[in-house]
Amino acid sequence: MISECNTSRGGASIGDAKAKIQRANEYAGMRLRAARLQRGLSQESLAAAVGLTFQQVQKYEKGKNRMSAGLLAFFAEHLKVPMTWFFDGLPQATGDDLVGASAINSMISTPGGIDVARSFTRIGVGDRQVVVRVMNALAQNGASAPHGD
Fold this sequence. Notes:
This protein is an all-alpha fold.
């Protein structure tokens, strides 16, 4: 357990270490959600398959609860992903890198997000720029409009 000291041996703040641990928990949770959605599973069906409640799966996906190594291995086996998949692309930096990684994971964790990403990689650079402009315009218009989800 990490205590509430101000610094550790390396001079880094314990608070910084706790924040880094929390970001890793949240990232692994986002990756769990993405893998579940990619397989077309609900939280309820994944929970039932691994002997949990859907509320527990929900907390893991949001990074509220930590997943043990054993649970990660079980999720990986059931979702047919390597165990390392939960941490692939985990940002080691802060700032823009972390924001970008979070946005990507948020996108692929939404229904249709994986389809958008796959389609995006199959179109040419010029068309990608058009798609980005259209998506930015839709996002600006949608920021003030009520969401249907």
